[in-house]
Design goal:
- By secondary structure, the protein is α/β, with parallel strands linked by helices.
- It has 3 domains: about 190 residues, Class I glutamine amidotransferase (GATase) domain (Rossmann fold, 3-Layer(aba) Sandwich); about 190 residues, HUPs (Rossmann fold), CATH 3.40.50; about 100 residues, GMP Synthetase, Chain A, domain 3 (2-Layer Sandwich), CATH 3.30.300.10.
- The chain is built from 14 helices and 18 strands.
- A 9-stranded mixed β-sheet has the order 2-1-3-4-9-8-7-5-6, sandwiched between helices.
- A hairpin with a 2-residue loop joins strand 15 and strand 16.
- Xanthosine-5'-monophosphate (XMP) binds next to loops.
- The site of xanthosine-5'-monophosphate has 14 residues, from loops.
Length: about 525
């Protein structure tokens, strides 16, 4: 496993994780490190190739992120993208300066050297995504220009004999129509990779490694029923069977029937060899949330109560050897251990667990995987598709989808409305195209009429967004007939709801959740 790897050196650009994902889509393992990583350490990892990312700086300015000139003399192929390309030229004796015309967006790139290894199978005119204000005005000695655009004399350059390639545009972005082909050409034609990163062997190897590491040890896992914790749990169950105990805390803020569904899959009548403990803690959570309206306070209470409940269960089990964490690769990169573009993750669900459970070591079987790879591993492990492709669901659950105070009655309203909404979206065949969709309960009551009676009841808000990364989102354009059907069913079938609203707010300025 992982015999060959490509290393992405991160200069702070926004698409850096995307580069690593594209490389992995070529079945080549890829890791991201900050530009500050020591050259000797990089060398010791014996990469088949190195990719330098984009970044927001100007490479000729004092203090700009840089790298050791020796990086280009290791005999390891290097591909510089955008800032990485400019830096390569700057360090090796070319010239980079402010461009007379800033290029941004889809741009036609004219390939001047069609027989370049990197352009194999690529059209002579190809649309690529540009985003730069500096440009390479003179290439470094030993290089030749291999592509240009109307405004950019050096869209690509190379010194094939040294294995050095520079491209000004972003091949990792989908708007670069043949970008994936170019990255694939780099890893296969230039770096000579053979493509040994495959999910089937990853899963098989991980199970074997976990079995060896754990031995006779006892393992504890907080199972939420979400994709990451489910895949981690099944992997461990395959490795060590009943040595694994999964604790599933039902906080009473799950979607309709979700607790029973999780139990059906992982419980004693389910498919997996593990100990499953379901804690029905609904009343505890509702009691703690009584009278609380402020969103962040609700989040905090739910998070803390979750830890308390889990802690009590863990104590009953006694000393365990290993605690499972569903950390995935973007968490590793974003927590600053990997790349440069640090984002502080604020939505971590089980971050507080290690401090309250007595264990010897943490196991993180998904630590190397991107989300789409976690899903592939899930399918490989035979986990049902509906679970593997579940939309994201926040840790505090319906607690952040009920505006204001949470009560058992309100939970039921939002659960019932949400179940209808999800059912109709799936019936209309829209479920695969919408990033996230759900019903939320507004705290608004208004007057309506039902038959001959006046009502004074709650309004449900329907939310549906399309999004790539959940950082920005747009409201989905759901056909009117589908919305009407959902509205009809909700007001007829859900007690105490007499109005249905559709939220068209984008993010920003809105958020996806209501709180
Ligand atoms: P927002 O509402 O911030 O949501 O636009 C972005 C994504 O994060 C999820 N989300 C959460 N996930 N705990 C979580 O585990 C939380 O407290 C939380 N709040 C939001 C949300 O569902 C969306 O996918």
């Amino acid at each position: 496993m992982k015999k060959e790897r490509i290393i992405v050196i991160d200069f702070g650009g926004q698409y850096n994780q995307l580069i690593a994902r594209r490389v992995r889509e070529c079945n080549v393992y890829c890791e991201i490190y900050s530009y500050k990583k020591d050259l000797e350490e990089i060398k010791a990892m014996n990469p088949k190739g190195i990719i330098l990312t984009g970044g927001p700086n100007s490479c000729y300015e004092p203090g700009a992120p840089t790298c050791d000139k020796k990086l280009f003399q290791l005999g390891i192929p290097v591909l510089g993208i955008c800032y990485g390309a400019q830096l390569m030229m700057h360090i090796l004796g070319g010239r980079v300066e402010k461009a007379p015309v800033r290029e941004y967006g889809k741009t036609e790139v004219i390939v001047d050297k069609l027989d370049s290894s990197i352009f194999e199978g690529v059209s002579s005119k190809t649309t690529c995504w540009m985003s730069h204000f500096d440009y390479i005005s003179r290439i470094a000695p030993g290089f030749e220009i291999t592509a240009h655009t109307a405004d950019c004399p050096v869209a690509a350059a190379e010194s094939a004999s040294e294995g050095l390639y520079a491209i000004q545009y972003h091949p990792e972005v989908l708007h670069s129509i043949e970008g994936s082909k170019m990255l694939s050409n780099f890893v296969y034609n230039v770096c000579g990779c053979c493509g040994d990163w495959r999910m089937d062997s990853f899963v098989e190897n991980s199970i074997a490694t976990l079995r060896e590491k754990i031995g006779e040890g006892k393992v504890l896992c907080a199972l939420s029923g979400g994709v990451d914790s489910s895949v981690a749990a099944v992997m461990l169950s395959k490795a060590v069977g009943k040595q694994l105990t999964c604790v599933f805390v039902d906080h009473g803020l799950l979607r309709k029937n979700e607790g029973d569904e999780v139990e059906a899959i992982f419980g004693p009548s389910g498919n997996y060899d593990l100990n499953f403990i379901r804690v029905n803690a609904q009343e505890r959570f509702y009691a703690k949330l009584k009278g609380i309206e402020e969103p962040e306070t609700k989040r905090k209470i739910i998070g803390e109560e979750f830890i308390r409940v889990f802690e009590e269960e863990a104590k009953k089990i006694g000393e365990v050897d290993f605690l499972v964490q569903g950390t995935i690769y973007p968490d590793v990169v974003e927590s600053g251990l990997g790349g440069e573009s640090a984002v502080i993750k604020s939505h971590h669900n089980v971050g507080g667990l290690p401090s309250v459970v007595s264990f010897k070591e943490i196991v993180e079987p998904l630590r190397d995987l991107f989300k789409d790879e976690v899903r592939k591993a899930g399918l490989q492990l035979g986990i049902p598709e509906y679970l593997v492709f579940r939309q994201p669901f926040p840790g505090p659950g319906l607690g952040v989808r009920i505006v204001g105070e949470v009560t058992a009655e309100k939970v039921k309203m939002v659960q019932d409305a949400d179940a209808i909404y999800r059912e109709e979206i799936a019936k209309a065949g829209l479920d695969k195209n919408i990033g996230q969709y759900f019903a939320a309960l507004t705290n608004m009551r208004s007057v309506g009429c039902m038959g001959d009676e006046r009502t004074y009841d709650y309004a449900i808000a329907l939310r549906a967004v399309t999004t790539v990364d959940f950082m920005t989102a747009e409201s989905a354009r759901i056909p009117w007939e589908v919305l009407e059907k959902v509205m009809n069913r909700i007001v007829n079938e859900v007690d105490h709801v007499n109005r249905v609203l559709y939220d068209i707010t984008s993010k920003p300025p809105g958020t996806i959740e209501f709180e």
